[in-house]
Amino acid sequence: MGALIRSGRTDPGRDEAQAAAQARQYLTFAVGAESFGMEISSIKEIIEFRKPTDVPLMPPFMRGVINLRGRVVPVIDLSVRFGRPAIEAARRTCIVIVEVEGGGGHDLGVMVDAVSAVLEIAEGDIEPAPSFGTNLRADFIRALGKVDGRFVIILDVDKVLSLEELAALGTAGGGAPAPG
Asked: Which of 15, 17, 138, 145 is most deeply buried (CB count within 10 A of its CB)?
């Protein structure tokens, strides 16, 4: 990487150290052919995929629940949440356990095709979310991170995993049809 220039002077060692200090860490993962990232601060752990227990009348994006050390953790298929086909469980499929706000913090499992890496992305390599040109809801995207000549879509975890919205989707026709 080239040296950063600030205040009209160049000090590569100092500027690179400042850039590293301003970098944030993101867990990157694949859903389909796209790369996504979440700030590492919202991630509790990553576990190997295990088939969730089905729960009747849940919306399609809710794959079920798992028992994680005695706690019931709902598992969301991120692909279905994005309006795409369900993830087919494979060898690299993982469940990322994320702590979401709302009523004191809850754990949700997020099913992804594969976890890639934890990356540090400098603030200077983060671009604002585009308002067009993606096939993903604009409010789900916090920003785009530039990594090795490609983009990683940085998700807004609070929007993608909004407990209020997920609950509303579950009761507004996301579950099984009402008997009639």
From this structure: 145
71, 19 contact by CB (below 8 A) = no
Amino acid letter at 69?
Answer: R
**Residue 177 pLDDT level (bands cut at 50, 70, 90):** very low
Residue at 177 is within a domain: no
Number of domains in the chain: 1
Structural domain span for residue 140: 5-170
29 within 8 A of 114, measured Cβ to Cβ: yes
Do the domain assignments include residue 136? Answer: yes
For residues 112 and 100, the answer to whether their CB atoms sit within 8 Å is no
CA distances from 135 to 59, 60, 79, 83 (A): 21, 19, 12, 9
